[in-house]
Amino acid sequence: MGRVQGKSILVTGAASGIGYEIAERLVAEGARVVLADLRTEMAMAAAAQLGDAAWGAALDVRDDASWVDLMLQAAGRFGQLDAMVNNAGIAATPQPQDVENVALTDWRAVQAVNVEGVLLGCQHAIRALQSTGGSIVNISSVAALMGTPTLAAYGASKAAVTQLTKTVALHCARRGYRIRCNSVHPGLVATGLFEATFSAAEQAEKLQSIPMGQFAKPEEVAAMVLYLVSDESTHVTGARFVIDGGMTMV
Ligand SMILES: NC(=O)c1ccc[n+]([C@@H]2O[C@H](COP(=O)([O-])OP(=O)(O)OC[C@H]3O[C@@H](n4cnc5c(N)ncnc54)[C@H](O)[C@@H]3O)[C@@H](O)[C@H]2O)c1
């Protein structure tokens, strides 16, 4: 039996990168998975690679109407939901993000996806899981845990996700919903987002900041998410899980 056998799980931002890797691992462990993404065709192609247990769908995490539509379709397709992984996120912006120069439009664009998108994801997950219980996993970052001089908007957005996670966890526990909510904090993972955010020189410099001497692999993040959506973590809520090769311990 797989570790999430028979569960239905929605993963946002699953057309590429970490989200796709999460979806792939969850399917391999017996789940049915909705791969939701702004890039609909890529999400559908990604789902097709994973077989009948996967379904690709359109979602703009910033848009409540898009969520309503997706949740209805997902319920029709896969029935009762068991878990939601709020993974979709952006980091790079057209203008520099240092705190002196960050443009308000860029700041808001990052908060819209990374914070409002996760808020909407949590709201829809709570509605869907309220009577049966389940797990919400929010993908934050080590950027939530340290100063981010070149990524002010991104760092603030991920700190907000970290705080929101605890608030959701406590709200659900107090209401007796049996919904757990935890945040996952990857360090540096070589994905499209990472390539778009850091130049080659910055990437080389970043590598020096990792005591274990290598970037994280998307599957190392997926392994943590698998644990958090599975029944192995039924007493775990409101917690932070860092996967950073030791970056934040120094
Ligand atoms: N790569 C890293 O080093 C790193 C480190 C820490 C945290 N993270 C976080 O991991 C998550 C995944 O990042 P990734 O590195 O795989 O990046 P990625 O760019 O490969 O994947 C992000 C996905 O989110 C989707 N997306 C963007 N805006 C969306 C929207 N409005 N609605 C729906 N989908 C949308 C994109 O289309 C893309 O498929 C993000 O939340 C990111 O902040 C990444």
The CATH class? Alpha Beta
Major sheet summary line: 7 strands, parallel
> What would you report as the Rg, rounded to the nearest angstrom?
17 Å
Mean pLDDT, to the nearest integer, reads: 97
Morphology? globular
**CATH fold label:** Rossmann fold
CATH superfamily: NAD(P)-binding Rossmann-like Domain
- Strand order in space, largest sheet: 3-2-1-4-5-6-7
Treating each run of at least 4 consecutive H or I residues as one helix, how many helices?
8
| Distance separating the two termini | 40 Å
Name every ligand kind in the structure: nicotinamide-adenine-dinucleotide
Second rung of CATH, namely the architecture? 3-Layer(aba) Sandwich
Unreliable stretches, pLDDT < 50, 5 or more residues? Answer: none
**What count of domains describes the coordinates?**
1
Strand content: 15-25%
**Could you say which structural class the secondary elements and strand pairing correspond to?**
alpha/beta
